[in-house]
Amino acid sequence: MNTFRIYEDLRSSLGEEAAKSLAHTLGPMFEELGNTVTKAEFRKLTGSVDRLAEAQDRTEAQVAKLAEAQARTEIQVAKLVEAQARTEARVAELAEAQVRTDAQVFELTKVVQSLVIQGERQGARLDAVLGSTFELQFRDRLTSYLGRLMRRGKLLRNDEVLDAIEQAVEPDEADEVLRVDAIASGIIDGIAGHVVVEVSATCGADDIDRAARRAGILRKAGLAAVPLVACKVISPELRSYAVSKQVRIWCDGTILDAAA
Q1: Which DSSP helix (H) or strand (E) runs through 191?
Q2: Are 142 and 181 in contact (CB under 8 A)?
Q3: Residues 182 and 139: beta-carbon distance below 8 Å
Q4: Backbone phi, then psi, for 35, in 5-degree steps?
Q5: Average of pLDDT values for 72-88?
Q6: What CA–CA distance (Å, rounded) separates 36 from 26?
Q7: Distance from C-alpha of 225 to C-alpha of 233, rounded to nearest angstrom
Q8: CA angle, corner 240, sides to 237 and 258, nearest 5?
Q9: pLDDT band of 116, cuts 50, 70, 90
Q10: pLDDT of residue 209
Q11: pTM score > 0.85 for this model?
């Protein structure tokens, strides 16, 4: 078997370059073997070459499959890269939207805080107006409101009371009497005396303390005086506190307790 014959036999299965290279290698070998080996041995060698060619075919087929798999992998990776880019763009958009939302929330918070402050101011002004209105109403109707507590009642001017006690009290105590919401004289529990009234729509502990302190100033000057808080609302705790301070409570038209 010459080199060209080997080349022709192998070219169709191995390809031109591989067949040429293998023919150049095997040609001389076959020539040498022709003189030394038997036909059986030569057939074995030829079979080995055929198996080698088949193995090469299988290898090339596997390589082709790997190449296809690699191509599919590259396509999938490209798709993942595109998806990641879209995700990053979306995240950037959401971040920008969040910044805008935070700015809007900040502005809204300032508006709400401003409204709350305005509401508190308006509420304070309204409380002051309601308190003043309630005080004027109570002073105007004091003798009828206190009819069950004080008979033959008469609303006094604060300066009238001051004339009667000024010589017996300190200057700051005299100022306290001038600040009393209302003072009336009449018969209380069968005894001639005075009612010293603090008026507040919602009774507080300071209202009770002022009534007790200011009535005490009149008693210091020798006048019989009963402290009273007039209100529309009072808690059970402050009601008990008033009793402990011997301050009577007129609440929304009713005398609640007579202090001992």
Answers
A1: strand 191-199
A2: no
A3: yes
A4: -95, -10
A5: 88
A6: 15
A7: 24
A8: 145
A9: low
A10: 95
A11: no
